[in-house]
Amino acid sequence: MSSDNYMEYEGQRFQTSKPYSDWDDFKEDPKNYLESETEKMQAAVKSVQFLPTAADREGVMAQMSDKQFPGFGCAQLGILHKDQLDQCAAFSIQIPRSSQCRYVGYVNVDGRFVLVSDFIGPPVPSIAYISVSDDHLNFHNIKKSLVHRDPIAGQDGAEP
Please, which domain of life does this record's source organism belong to (predicted)? Predict the structure, then answer.
């Protein structure tokens, strides 16, 4: 941590409410950023760009870690069918000070993980699991009911 009163995210500076010398103190403080920064923070998370492909699942995970807004959450969604572990990966990124998350999903197409889903939705556990079926990446709630789906590019008539 720095003694400065700001954090950086995607090349932008965001004013913190005070200097923090300890990361845990910063992330546990519900007022870690100035209220006047809220809209700017939300816009930054809503507009951040994700790579269209990743070499593997670890590449997707590394990218999500980089895109998490400092002091807010990022979670990997569960895989509904464990035999699909190598077929898909999805994450929720908390939109600061809101009741929304940005969901990003990748599917393994010919050995590379390809971005298939990118949408804003309710927070976890409203969406908690993913699966692949019928040429779609599916998002499920905690009760495993389908709540969102996107076609996998290049399949089922979807645009590549």
Answer: Bacteria
How far is Cα 156 from Cα 153, in angstroms, rounded to an integer? Answer: 8
8 Å CB contact between 60 and 89: yes
Q: CB of 76 within 8 A of CB of 67?
A: no
Q: Do 119 and 102 touch, CB atoms closer than 8 A? A: yes
Instruction: Quickly tell me which residue has 């103190």 as its tokens.
Output: 25
Q: At residue 115, what is the residue type?
A: L
Residue keyed to tokens 């809503």: 46
CA 119 to the chain's CA centroid: 9
**Burial class, 85, CB count within 10 angstroms (exposed 0-12 / middle 13-18 / buried 19+):** exposed
Rounded-to-integer distance, Cα 117 and Cα 29, Å: 32
- Listed in sequence order, the DSSP H helices in 3-159 are 23-28, 38-47, 57-67
